[in-house]
Amino acid sequence: MPRIEITSDTLTEALARISEALSDTAPLMQDIGEYMVKSTNDNFAAGSDPDGKPWAPRTQATLDAYAARKDKPGPRPLIGPTKSLSGTISYEAGADDVTWGSNMIYAAVQQFGAEAGAFGARMGVNKKGRRFFMPIPWGNIPARRFLGVGKEDQAALIEIVEEYLEGAAAD
User: Facing residues of 123 across strands?
Assistant: First the structure.
């Protein structure tokens, strides 16, 4: 088997720095987290999934519900009057991983969709004394992926990793 022996102190030191940088990639994970939060916010601005596919439009029933509450919907699906979902995108980086998303209780339903009644129903008596039964959710909700790594993201993430390694080698 061929053997290569490195005798250059400069190269040996650069490889040692790269090895050290790879032993704790938390700074890299932070860079990736920041990028993915920005990318996800761009998805909200465009009203599309990570690959650029437009989200399903709001249904007339949803628009009617906004009108009944006297709320004005945002310009695109997933952007309501409070902008709660789009305003809570954050990340958490560890030594060798990163997660990002929203802490809103309904975020997963928006991401993956849900059939009417998928989470049971709410029953009760309204203010007029009438009994009601309302499935949760009350209508079908199409998946509107706002999280994920699209093709453009993949290229950007490779660049982030390359810059991280180049920076480690050059230090």
Answer: 133
